User: Fold 2-methoxy-6-polyprenyl-1,4-benzoquinol methylase, mitochondrial from Methylobacterium cerastii.
Amino acid sequence: MDTLSLVLDAFAPIAGRRLLDVGCGPGAMAAALAGHGAWMTGIDPGAAAIAAARDRAPNCTFEAGSAESLPFADGSFDGAVILNALHHVPDPRAALGEAARVVVPGGRIVVVEPLAEGSFFVALRPVEDETAIRAAAQAAIADAIAAGRFRCLSDTTFVRRETFADRDAFLERVAAVDPARRIAIRDNAGAIATAFAAAIERDANGRCGLSQPLRAHVLVAVREPA
Assistant:
């Protein structure tokens, strides 16, 4: 399983659906879904990410903004995706509530989040230790389901494996997600090198492999009776 296949399955048939990509980053997923016929809108707080997304997918709409206060009317979208982004939101509960607000009744929300485990996480930790924020995102999802605000259609864990030519390529990848990480990369070079060397698995071509377990929830918001 991979993230794109999971999202396509969740929204099948996807052609013609109006979808919101919350925390869209440079627009890779929005572009992929648009390629399958979805009408995509992406939102991200980073101006550089939005500029990159507009260059990558000029047929999509991208806006700068916060997941905790989406600039869209109620029921604007057929569904929403939040991919590897909820743990970066200061208030993940508010972000889930906003995603529920802007989708139509019965619309699905796909949330894919990295877990605080796996070799990719081990290599990343000296750059940025996301243990607490990843746990907070999972807690927000679990609490929303337990409180009856969402019905969970599926809860799946799968592994994303990435390969890199070397440590520098890995560091460029993680810095692209958050340029502020370049400070830690500069200041913690020794610890980063040690963690990376311990975490990697080299393939037959000598490339460095890292694995990241991802947990995917497909949710439907439960609205109170009028």
